């Protein structure tokens, strides 16, 4: 059952990202999805100013390497300690 939840959660996150790309959104909220790394597709959100990733399972900022080439004004992060 957990595999099914992961599948739907991943596709819902990707759908939110695609919607942000299409609408040229300035913000994207991917909080509370239990993701362990930020999806690469976020790098295609060219209008993005705010990205919220808090309350996920992110353990290191290197999962945000997709955005280093662009300035993103604020990240809402809740990075967890690896261990």
TrEMBL record:
It comes from the Eukaryota. This is GL10804. It comes from Drosophila persimilis.
């Amino acid at each position: 059952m957990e595999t099914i939840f992961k599948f739907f959660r991943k596709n819902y996150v990707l759908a939110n990202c695609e919607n942000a790309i299409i609408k040229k959104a300035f913000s994207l909220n991917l909080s509370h999805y239990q993701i362990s790394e930020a999806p690469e597709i976020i790098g295609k959100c060219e209008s993005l100013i705010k990205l919220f990733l808090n309350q996920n399972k992110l353990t290191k900022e290197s999962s945000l390497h997709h955005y280093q080439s662009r300035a993103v004004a604020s990240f809402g992060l809740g990075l967890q300690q690896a261990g």
